[in-house]
Each structure stands twice: as C-alpha cells, then as structure tokens.
Design a protein that fits this description.
alpha+beta; 5 strands; single chain; 161 residues; 32% helix; 5-stranded antiparallel β-sheet; 4 helices; TATA-Binding Protein
Length: 161
C-alpha cells in the first residue's frame, strides 16, 4: 500500500512539473485576439461576435494598451509572453495559484469613435474547463480600465524562459 501511495505522489509531482515547465511558444499563443473563438475555457472581448464588447476608452490605442499592460502587471502570477503596447498586441501568461496551469490572454486595441476599444482573447492551455477564471480575470481588467486604473505604475515583465 505504501508503494502505491508513493507512486501516486511521485506521479502527481511529475505532472505538476510538466504543467509548470511546459514551454510556451509565442508563435502558437501570441495571436490576433480578433481571431479568438468563444467556448469552454475561452473568453472573447470584441466589437462584434465575442462574449461581450469592451468599453470605449477616451485614449489612443497604444495608450490604452499601456494602461492594460500596467493592470496586467498588477495581476498576480502574470507575465508578458510576447509583444508590447507599442507593437499593438500583447500576450500574457497568468498561472493558477496552486497548480500553475497557464492561461493565455492576447490583447489588442481598435480605434473607434471617441477613443480605443480593447479586443481580448483569453484561453486555457490544459483541460476542458477553467471554471470561469479567464472571464473573471478579463472582466476585472476591463473594470479597472473603466475606473482609470493603470494610468501609472510598473509595466509587465517578460516571462522567464
């Protein structure tokens, strides 16, 4: 019985290492968020066809992305996988607290009447459901953006590879 428990514990530890150490290829995850498709474990913010529309913020697109970048930087366990506000698109990795499962959030901005509007595609890497975690994170970022948070503060840091 002790051997069975030991095998289980070692197997679980190995699985957790896989989740934490699996490489994140920017070519696969740094995508145009306008191409995002809603579904289980996915949340899309787009002017049309997403799970919801984003607010129009009275800023230029790059300035809005800089604000979102600072909001993302304040999110625990979040780093920048690829891109930056100046390039017009940024992809972040946010890891779950206990198991370290990676979620990817790609953000861009569209110029519109009265300012810029975010386009966001958040999705999980492993599993079939994220229990609404991506939606909650993106909704909190949008609420912070609407409150004017992220106007100052540190910017996101690149992920360690």
């Amino acid at each position: 019985m002790q051997v069975l428990i030991l095998v289980f514990v070692v197997g679980l530890a190995a699985l957790l290492v896989v989740f934490r150490m699996a490489p994140s290829d920017p070519k696969r995850w740094h995508v145009d968020p306008a191409t995002g498709v809603s579904g289980n474990g996915r949340f899309v913010v787009a002017p049309a066809g997403g799970d919801r529309t984003g607010p129009v913020v009275p800023l230029a697109p790059e300035a809005m992305l800089q604000q979102i970048d600072r909001i993302a930087a304040a999110t625990p366990r979040t780093c920048r996988l690829a891109g930056d506000p100046a390039s017009g698109r940024v992809t972040y990795i946010t890891r779950s607290r206990v198991f370290g499962f990676p979620d990817y959030t790609s953000v861009a901005a569209m110029a519109g009447d009265g300012g810029a509007q975010p386009v966001i595609f958040a999705r999980q890497r492993f599993g079939k459901s994220d229990l609404g975690v991506n939606r909650k994170r993106v909704e909190s970022w949008l609420a912070a953006l609407e409150r004017g948070e992220g106007a100052a503060g540190p910017t996101s840091q690149p992920c360690q590879r």
